[in-house]
Prior knowledge:
This protein is of the alpha+beta class. The chain is built from two helices and five strands, in the order αβββαββ. 29% of the residues lie in helices and 42% in strands.
Amino acid sequence: xxxxxxxxxxxxxxxxxxxxxxxxxxxxxxxxxxxxxxxxxxxxxxxxxxxxxxxxxxxxxxxxxxxxxxxxxxxxxxxxxxxxxxxxxxxxxxxxxxxxxxxxxxxxxxxxxxxxxx
Length: 118
């Protein structure tokens, strides 16, 4: 499963670079969890959760970013901001990567401001 996650994160990183984001970190870990991608654009720190699916039998990828996952991401983001002594607004985004299961991307959706910081 790790290989598929890395694939989804690579697809998302390419998308972000094309859109003018600066990538600050990937697979950043702290004791509270992992942030898939940390990016920045226009003075906003973007915490990006990447979800990859080959079918929708388990629902839309964004649905996997439930309340529990959101809390973990908020806490990890606060740790990242503190560790790096940043003073930037934080936004939480979700990238949905759809694949045919053979290494091909069949769809991609990037959801800005997918959930709030509270």
